Amino acid sequence: MLFQTMQYILIPALLGAQIILTIILHKGDICPGQRGRVHKWLPALILGWCAIAGFGMTYAPIFAMNFIPAIAITGFYLSVKTGKTRDKGPLIVLALANGFAAASFVNLALGSGSFTQLFYALVGPFIFGALFAHLLLTLARTRLQAFHKILPISGIVGGIIMAVILLCQTLSVHEIFLDRMAVKLAIALGLMLLSIGFWTYHLFKQQAIKWQFLLLANVIMAISGYYQFQLFFVR
Predict the structure, then answer these.
(1) How many other C-beta atoms can be found within 10 angstroms of the C-beta atom of residue 41?
(2) pLDDT digits 0-9 by tens, 65-90
(3) What whole-number distance in Å separates Cα of residue 99 and Cα of residue 105?
């Protein structure tokens, strides 16, 4: 159960973050300093994929395929500078990493046991991925103001959709499990709402985003994700 939960949180988070960072590195109007600082935080993605692969291999050797995105990102990271640079690096390698990450995500989604679980997986990158990417961009001190608005809005929309999915899942179980499910649903939704609150705080206060708020939002969202995923395996 723990590894399955980890998969449904980390894989969407890593895939979503990778795609957003790739778009920024390829198309973003960023100065040499910002580009280097984004490069500096790529090891966070490498560690994430290594964690998925390492834990997964204790269950089945097939999970070793998750080392491939980590290796590709490592190759890209070693070929670029983390200081001021205009060099975009071999973005084809980053695209390759995204391809294998997408393959891992598709494998995860296709392994879903129900339609609600499938939709749960599909919404993941828009919540876990956008939130993780926002943290990395803030730590890299990027000045892409549009993303500081778009990513939290993505979280709000994704949170609404996720709440509907979790409610549908709760109502689909036998009535003898409803009491237990209701408690877990309340915890999951409460934590998700709290996380989105920290995530969007700067929008309502109209002030600069703080990485500490985003780190806290990521931790709370991960805990919420743990309770969310329990709703698909009633015991």
Answers:
(1) 18
(2) 899 999 999 999 999 888 888 888 88
(3) 10
